[in-house]
Amino acid sequence: MVFLGIDGGGSKTSFLLEDEAGAELGRVETGPSNWLSTGQDEARRNIASGIAQLKTLPGIVGAGFAGAGRPEGIHFYRDCLANLLPNAKLFVETDAFISYAGAIGLKPGVLLIAGTGSIAIGRRRNGAMIRVGGWGPIFSDDGSGFWIGREVIRAALSANDAGVAPKFVASVCKALRIQSITDVSGAWAAGTLTVQSVASLTTLVLANPATDHAKRILGQAASHLRSLTQLAIARVGLPQCRLSIAGSIASHPLIRKRIRMKFSNPDHPPEKGAIIWARSQARH
After folding, report:
1. Exposed, middle or buried by CB within 10 Å (0-12, 13-18, 19+), for 135?
2. Structural domains in the chain?
3. Quick one: which of 68, 197, 216, 219 has the most CB atoms within 10 Å?
4. How are strands ordered across the β-sheet holding 129-133?
5. What is the pTM of this model?
6. How far apart, in whole angstroms, are the C-alpha atoms of residue 129 and residue 138?
7. Which of the residues in the chain have pLDDT under 70?
8. DSSP code, position 181
9. What are phi and psi of 129, to 5 degrees?
10. Which of 247, 248, 221, 243 is nearest to 231 (CA)?
11. What is the pLDDT, as a whole number, of residue 188?
């Protein structure tokens, strides 16, 4: 039996092919497949492109997608994969779930993920999965790249109002490609300022962590991520459970040090986690 693991996100889609014994048969990477951000047509094209490049077709597929958090997302991806692989058994979940399976396996624990967004995923002794956060940049995702970028903009606006730190304000404008920091609201409304461009401002504070703005923002981000993890641990109900960490923000040494919790690195990437989960489901 050949297994396929898919990790589909907003920037790329990764495919991992393995045989029954777990030997790698091939890897493929294509463009984004989050249907909510890229649209259905592009998501389908990138998934189809990846499968078309496989050396052999799988009998069992485990897949996790960033847009599979709601029933209509699960339906979209199952339909897409069923059309491409009509003879395969399909198991579709969220990208956060397969990230957990890759990082920790199917054992109890907590995985903190913070990149553009933030979420903590936990698994209880009985196999039940819990989540804390991850409800999007507007109402949630505290401590994430977007949250950090938004705080950078807030700091720049305050500095502009006070007539101080002109170099800092200018650096933010340059990064966002706007003439004046007061243009941010209009740029957001027009769509020229996006979640990704706001999140990209994390590079400013991570590159200059000793500044007053950076110290405050990075400290608060780490505090939010620590609280997210602690709440997930409480809901899992195992104070000494394994903790793992993933994502460009949470894994950054400056943030990880400030969180002040002991995390292990993920055992495997998400696409491998998708296979681990698919193997467990296929046995049932």
Report:
1. middle
2. 3-105+267-282 (3.30.420.40), 106-265 (3.30.420.40)
3. 68
4. 129-133, 118-123, 109-114, 242-246
5. 0.92
6. 24
7. none
8. G
9. -100, 145
10. 243
11. 96
